[in-house]
Amino acid sequence: MNPLFYIDPGTGSMLFTLLIGLISAGVYGLRNLAVKLRFIASGGRAEKGDNAQKPYIIFAESKRYWNVFEAICDEFEARGIDIDYLTASPDDPALEKPYEHVKCKFIGEGNKAFAHLNMLKADMVLATTPGLDVYQWKRSRDVKYYVHILHAISDATMYRMFGLDYYDAVLLTGEFQVEQIRKLESLRNLPEKELEIVGLTYVDYLKARLQASEPVPAHETTVLIAPSWGKSAILSLYGGKIIDALLEAGYHVIVRPHPQSFESEKELMDKLMADYPESEQLEWNRDNDNFDVLHRSDIMISDFSGVIFDFALVFDKPLIYTEPAFDNAPYDACWLEEEPWTFTTLPKIGKQLSMDKLDGISELIESCLKDDSLQAGRDAARNECWQHQGEAATRIVDYLVAKHEQLEAAPEE
Fold it and tell me: Over pLDDT 90: what percentage of the chain?
């Protein structure tokens, strides 16, 4: 490659973001001109349709967040309130739902989706996607209010740097997250966002589904490896060693990598899946719905993934976590002196695994399965991080409707 034409990845990303901004501004100007011309041509009559200002929009960057949004869409539908659901997944389950008041639309993947979002016309936008106004997704000048909803029971500071800074409001699962966000706002001299503790829809759904399910039939002890992704996650640190140890101990093993691993760590995943093909003793799981593997697993081994709390607090089962070699440098957590809530809570609800304990992993698993003291830790953690159990969908829609009424009543700036 000619060095005169080389652009490093960081500069390339910055130039691409600048280009997206310039294109969006140009399209925005042309669109406004077209709207004005149509308005004049129609004799001053307002238009209706896709270009009209929407009261509520939900954006889903992936179909895997349907477990967060489905109950919210159902609640809007039950109340007879119109809302637009925009997804970047062509096979999002929302597209198959027979809604009357929820209009579901695929807006393209990747940068095509962000280009669409950058020109939205809406009163309110609800999303799980961090990084608003940081990377490709820019605030549209025709959106009044952006609301972020957490997609996991965890710290609000476990997003990549500046993940929540430019939202107007954040919907939370527990009080400890309020303190984290307020400290970040103070350190960065940001205006205070509106923070509302509402609970979390998908764990409410998991709990209801679990209560309605049949007991798991008798089976051999099943160990679920369910990591996060990145250099600090299990599969990067331990590789196949942890799979070897579990198979040698005679357990039935399910490996469920984080979906992002297949994009950001493709070489690692390809190697592990080739070295450890599926067998009667080993499964690789990539289901969009994780209920089945959580339900039939007896114990989980994880790192700092949010699925830890689904397993421990909803399914009420023990877990093993790897030593916290978590590099918080890219995350908002690095701005705070306090250790993240996730890492202070893990010793209360599980037991730690380190590389030098791999040979004794069988004893560690059996001790977790028999240790009744971990139950008290799970109960305490559940009360801290999962407030308003069973009420999340109702509280979220109540909040959005009340905030929309405030926005409509407020004078135009």
Answer: 73
Is there a single domain that holds both residue 173 and residue 216? no
Residue from 350, 341, 299 nearest 323 by CA? 350
Q: Are residues 147 and 210 in the same domain?
A: no
Asked if residue 56 lies in contact with residue 408, where contact means CB atoms within 8 angstroms, the answer is no
Tokens representing residue 358 in the block: 């791999």
Confidence band of 47 (pLDDT split at 50, 70, 90): very low
- Distance (Å, whole) CA 95 – CA 106: 8
**CATH code at 163?**
3.40.50.2000
Residues 196 and 212 reside in one and the same domain:
no
Instruction: Decide: 68 and 137 in contact? Cβ < 8 Å.
Output: no
The CA distance from 287 to 300, in Å, is 17
359 vs 275: CA distance, rounded Å:
20
- Report pLDDT digits (tens) over 315-349: 999 999 987 667 788 899 999 999 999 889 999 99
Let me know: does 353 contact 323? Beta carbons within 8 Å: yes
